[in-house]
From TrEMBL, chains A, C:
Keywords: FAD, Flavoprotein, Oxidoreductase
Superkingdom per UniProt: Bacteria
Record domain Acyl-CoA dehydrogenase/oxidase N-terminal: where: 8-102
Organism: Frigidibacter albus
Identification of the protein by name: Acyl-CoA dehydrogenase
Automatic annotation (TrEMBL), chains B, D:
Acyl-CoA dehydrogenase/oxidase C-terminal domain: residues covered: 231-382
Recorded GO MF terms: flavin adenine dinucleotide binding; oxidoreductase activity, acting on the CH-CH group of donors
Species in which this protein is naturally found: Frigidibacter albus
Protein name, per record: Acyl-CoA dehydrogenase
Family annotation (Pfam families): Acyl-CoA_dh_1, Acyl-CoA_dh_M, Acyl-CoA_dh_N
InterPro entries documented for this protein: Acyl-CoA_Oxase/DH_mid-dom, Acyl-CoA_Oxase/DH_mid-dom_sf, AcylCo_DH-like_C, AcylCo_DH/oxidase_C, AcylCoA_DH/ox_N, AcylCoA_DH/ox_N_sf, AcylCoA_DH/oxidase_NM_dom_sf, Mycobact_Acyl-CoA_DH
Cellular component aspect of the GO annotation: plasma membrane
Similarity annotation: Belongs to the acyl-CoA dehydrogenase family.
Keyword Protein transport carried by entry: no
Record keywords: FAD, Flavoprotein, Oxidoreductase
Domain spans labelled Acyl-CoA oxidase/dehydrogenase middle: 125-219
Cofactor: FAD
Length: 329, 396, 329, 396
């Protein structure tokens, strides 16, 4: 039996997180027309630590909360919806890899929020660090590998102007000989699910944003949502959101059950969710018209994040190749 | 949210696999026409006799009353066994007519028809669309006047799949021409061999004659054949359509998954459209194959989401149109990919394994049973709550 | 100065051909729901010979009419519009190649209609012959080559059921050692323009067909063309037709003037015209709804021809490669 | 239909090439803002002084009265010389305001303004769109009341490109609120430094402040600044829009052609998004590059078709929307391709040569100056003659 709706307990976890984010990290915190200060991301990360979110799926004896991939993936959706920095997912992954390696104290520091982690992404032979701040640990997902690096593995950080204004970006070179932990295949799956989850969350967010706007914005004497050109775009957003969510949750459950087709389903989820996120955030801008092109609307933040997230798992090309290699059900 | 395999599921899967291994027809199913129908009926009868028909039908109507999860397992094993297409000429009877009779039929109608549908003794077709109405189903004009104990039907229907070898028809007729468009319609069981019924096959662009046009000239149908109440046919029909748009196409989806895997195998072993290397080595083909694989998985996933909603007790809603829209457009993408894979071989009607013909046949997906445009309207208006499109009354 | 509108003289040629086709080969001749007998194609070919169309662009001293590529391309558009068998283009090309080779008598036989030609297309190591009938000559366009073969170069003909019902299709094997003439680069260009011209013609035909239908077909109490879903599809058809025609005519003129960018422009024309033709013929079916799916509507004939034409020049992949190799303006 | 190079064209091309070689600015154009405008003005002034401005403007208005063919040759040579973007902050003045003044202005207006536009002494901006109106341009509500010899303007405009460093504005105001929507509008020359004009730049998603919002608080504009007649502004404005949608974007198109060639060169020499091989070796990239190359050629071809129609004497018609729609959507496809080519480099705002920023900036293409949806309406209704979409009156 495969059940893709949250049960009451799972819904409670989601609601708690959504409540926290709505309260402490509402989208309104993002001044869409300005770059977002690093400190603000740090605050959100601290709030999430307070809720124990980075250890949500770790066993209690490893300092976690004892939930599983299903709950964690549902939470990733909420983080995507609120455009939480991906460093939250990085902290989750770093804690898990450290716990796997028997380095419980370091894991606890991440879970408790006294240490933070960030993602890296390859840029030729160099690397980008995403929302690096004072992160103690760096998570790199590339090909079939997930690797945890200590901050010391990064050379000097050169700040660059990022596409996504809500996140700082630096160039550096990771000394790959200095890996702290090579993550297990299970951690790779977890990373892919967390990133795909953020893509699904922002896809759902822009679907709702576009539909809301189409109901209130009037042109030619009626709400633009009455026109098929807009209505049908909204319908396509709904299809994208529904398919991306369903595929993600199926993949999360398959991963949790360690089904033979889990890798296939998870790569399919990253692909479907990323295509959905990039297409939907683009259409949301078009539906918003002129206002959607301005920095004052938040529409652009979602588009930029959909591009950023793609590179947290090494790009769509790598997903396609992994998907073709994976064994289907 | 959970995924677990129960003992019941495990046992069911084993039994299904064993039975299918022993019973799947060896000969290939003819691609279309009456030969296909004969094949479908023989195969359905064998499943019926083996106790594998109507798995999720309620027990009191001859089914086995199993949950949709087991139905899904059946289709999975069915596809694995490379059994003949499950979405066949019996689809209307099994997936439209029977659910309608179960939901709205009289005990007499149920007793007479349901088992005969399940055992493929009777073949059913649909009689909803009309030449002038198209996507505007409710604009139907086929008249039925009450005369004594009969309805006297005059008019015509179109796009009646398999009409020329069907025994019965789900027939929508207008019984009150003065009522608003959606009122005054009645759902009635039409018998195809009644005097005054004239059935003319319509050839489709792929050369098959899947569809028919049906003409009614003073056809007398007893009032006892009305399903639901007179003038309540729109509601009765909509409940059937809701069913179709939900989980009924599960078998189809699983077949599509298998088809995509076949494409990948083909691409590994055969030159691509450029004629210079194996198709899989062409990145444009690779990329389309990867997308097809991911999207057929997502199609199955949204169906599992529908099943989950059904399990919670939700009635089939407009989100069924999401499944339908995604499914039909994906079918077309996948079959266009198959067509392109064969390169100049696509100049032949059958192409490789009939892929050219299938490419043409899939053109109907985004048209029949409500065009993609209509599905997007439904999603926009009923699911997302966007305002209805403005309509100018005729002559305005 | 580049002028892309026909002058009075050119318009007269187009009108004469269109008049002939409307009179002797109207679309109504094609019983859409049945395979079209070979003899009917032969009749149309005979009518065209009577007009001298196969020698339109050959000099008068070579037995031609003395027009140029511009007029010939305009005529190809009309042939595409009326779904004339591609053997008309094959006859034109065969006559030209024979004239180039100093085989004037054979060229004259083609121009006069007493001999006919047909196209071949590669199928792996074998070949398809398109509308072969009793064609004396076979034209094969493949890669950067155009080659004329005598009928004797073809092995036994095995009839196969073609996708396009209006044209017979056979499999055979061409003995490539038996080439009659290797065509010049100019003949290759001519072939590409003729095929692209047929694609443009059928693109324009389905645009008109769809728009006409959208004006008269009513649903929900109004013509379906009033709905944006249909209206916008029609707009896209108009864009496709306009761009394909403009690119084709520009390419034809550049070819005639032997500009350095002529090859580039001609390959761009085959690409744009074929994409336009395949997308437009598909959308025309969708706009027609149920009736568009039936064999009784002519919509499917255009779709099938758009696919057939693609393989007369060896497929889109070859066009893309040639385009990338060609020197731009 | 013909293509020939006249002696005049050959000479013109040679002269243009020589002049450009000697005069194209060596320093790169700043990407946006006032610095870009300063650069544009200096460069335009140099062209003006050299006799290369207003090539196709009538002679009596300071132009050279040359045919569009020569204008096109100029743009070709301009692109070949890698001169700064021709579609710059002076676009509105040169391509909207001046043609409007030539068509509908008084001799005094023409004498005062045209040369100052051509020499870049004055920068112009547009004042058509309003916050509430969007694509429904005619719904504008900025009021202008006649008071003595002045119009007194109150309201606001939005999407005013380069408003914050413009001297003049093409301003559409409502002078008769009781007239039907398209009547009662007046086209007037607004001076940006008049008392009561408040200009606020709007940051766009790429970080630039190309657009402004402009507020009018009892702004007095002399009636002598009205172009055409009071209440006849819609007609005046539409003729300008027709012009924009025709051949005015020729320079832009040629720049796009050059951009695509740059992409191909880049793809040959740089790793693609997969990071494993040169981008050009990835068939999905190859295929998109080939399509971009073919389609930019087709864009130039439809513009040549427009020029041919103009040569025949046709007025700019709704088919201009075809060029515009194809152009803007192609721009987005090409810039998305550029963005994708750089792989993870797209995480930087500038990316390779600013391609990320440009990718974001191109989002406006299908919105500003009439969305793609509006263009498709225009093509469908005015060019193809399809029925207008039904409109429900407000409150109905």
């Amino acid at each position: 039996m495969i059940h893709l709706l949250p049960d009451a307990d799972q819904q409670q976890v989601v609601d708690a997180l959504a409540g926290l984010l709505q309260d402490r990290a509402p989208l309104e915190r993002l001044k869409a027309s300005e770059r977002f200060p690093d400190t603000a991301n740090a605050e959100v990360l601290g709030e999430l630590a307070g809720m124990g979110i980075y250890g949500l799926a770790l066993p209690e004896d490893a300092g976690g909360v004892g939930y599983g991939p299903a709950e964690e993936t549902l939470c990733a959706i909420e983080m995507g919806r609120f455009l939480v920095t991906p460093s939250a997912a990085a902290a989750t992954l770093a804690a898990a890899m450290l716990a796997d390696a028997g380095r419980g104290d370091e894991a606890a520091a991440l879970i408790g929020g006294s240490a933070t982690a960030c993602f890296a992404s390859m840029k030729g032979k160099r690397h980008y660090l995403v929302d690096a701040r004072d992160a103690a640990l760096i998570v790199l997902v590339q090909g079939d590998h997930i690797t945890l690096y200590p901050r010391a593995a990064a050379g000097s950080l050169q700040p660059v102007e990022g596409l996504d204004w809500t996140i700082s970006l630096h160039q550096t070179t990771l000394d790959t000989a200095q890996a702290a932990v090579q993550g297990s295949p299970a951690r790779l799956r977890q990373a892919l699910l967390l990133i795909a989850g953020m893509q699904v969350g922002l896809t759902e967010a822009v679907c709702a944003m576009a539909v809301d706007y189409a109901k209130i914005r009037e042109q030619f004497g009626q709400p633009i949502g009455a026109f098929q050109a807009i209505k049908h775009k909204c319908a396509d957003l709904a299809v994208a959101a529904e398919t991306a969510r369903a595929q993600l949750l199926l993949a999360a459950l398959a991963g949790a059950a360690d089904l033979p087709e889990a890798d296939f389903l998870i790569r399919a989820a990253t692909l479907v969710a990323t295509e959905a996120a990039q297409a939907s955030t683009r259409e949301n801008i078009q539906i918003h018209g002129g206002i959607g092109y301005t920095a004052e609307s938040r529409a652009h933040l979602f588009l930029k994040r959909a591009h950023l997230n793609e590179w947290l798992f090494g790009g769509l090309w790598a997903q396609r190749e992994a998907l073709l290699r994976a064994k289907a059900a | 949210m959970e995924l677990r395999t129960t003992q019941e599921e495990r046992l069911f899967r084993e039994k299904a696999r064993t039975w299918l291994e022993e019973n799947v027809p060896k000969e290939p199913r003819p691609p279309h026409g009456r030969e296909a129908n004969d094949h479908d009926r023989a195969w359905q009868r064998r499943q019926f006799d083996g106790g594998w028909a109507g798995l999720s039908w309620p027990k009191e109507y001859g089914g086995r009353g199993l949950p949709l999860d087991l139905q899904l397992i059946w289709f999975e094993e069915y596809a694995r066994a490379e059994a003949p297409e499950a979405t066949n000429t019996l689809y209307v009877g099994l997936n439209h007519a029977a659910p309608t009779l179960i939901a709205s039929g009289t005990p007499e109608q149920q007793a007479f028809h349901l088992e005969k549908i399940l055992s493929a003794e009777n073949v059913w077709c649909q009689g909803f669309s009309e030449p002038g109405a198209g996507s505007d189903l409710a604009a139907l004009r086929t008249r039925a006047e009450i005369d004594g104990d009969d309805l006297v039907v005059n008019g015509s229907k179109i796009w009646t799949s398999n009409g020329h070898y069907s025994h019965y028809q789900e027939l929508l007729v207008r019984t009150d021409p003065d009522a608003p468009k959606h009122k005054g319609i009645t759902w009635v069981i039409g018998q195809m061999d009644l005097p005054g019924v004239d059935i003319r096959p319509i050839r489709n662009m792929a050369g098959g004659d899947h569809f028919c046009e049906v003409f009614y000239n003073d056809v007398r149908i007893p009032l006892s054949s009305v399903v639901g109440k007179v003038n309540d046919g729109w509601r009765v029909a909509m409940s059937t359509l809701g069913f179709e748009r939900g989980t009924a196409s599960m078998a189809h989806q699983i077949e599509l998954t298998q088809f995509v895997e076949n494409l990948i195998d083909y691409a590994r072993d055969n030159p691509g459209p450029d004629g210079r290397r194996m198709a899989i080595e062409d990145d444009t083909i690779r990329s389309r194959l990867a997308a097809a694989r991911a999207e057929t998985s997502a199609l199955k996933a949204i169906t599992l989401l529908s099943i989950s909603r059904a399990r919670r007790g939700d009635a089939p809603g407009p989100e069924g149109s999401i499944t339908r829209l995604f499914h039909t457009e994906l079918m077309q993408r996948v079959h266009r990919l198959a067509y392109d894979l064969t390169g100049s071989g696509g100049l032949e009607m059958e192409g490789h394994r009939g892929w050219s013909r299938q490419y043409l046949e899939q053109m109907r997906q985004t048209i029949a049973g409500g065009t993609s445009e209509i599905q997007r309207n439904i999603i926009g208006e009923r699911h997302l709550g966007l305002p209805r499109q403005p309509v100018i009354a005729k002559g305005a």
